[in-house]
Design goal:
The chain has one domain. Helices cover 77% and strands 0% of the residues.
Amino acid sequence: MNRLFARTKKREIMPKAFEEFKFTENQKNGPVSEFWEKVHLAAKALKEETNCPNNIIASGLRAVAAEWD
C-alpha cells in the first residue's frame, strides 16, 4: 500500500462516496478501499505525467465515470 494512502486511511479521511453510498465495513476495508487506492494513485500519476491542473484531471475522471453510469 502506498505510504501516503496508508496515512490517509489511518486518519479515516476517505472519499465522500464511502458515506454517500453507505458501503459496509467489509466493503470499505476490502474491495472499495482497494479500488479507491488504485484510482487515487493512477490519478496522481496522471497529474504528474501530464502536468495538468487538478480541475482538468477531475473533469477527465468525471467524464470517464459518466461512461459507466
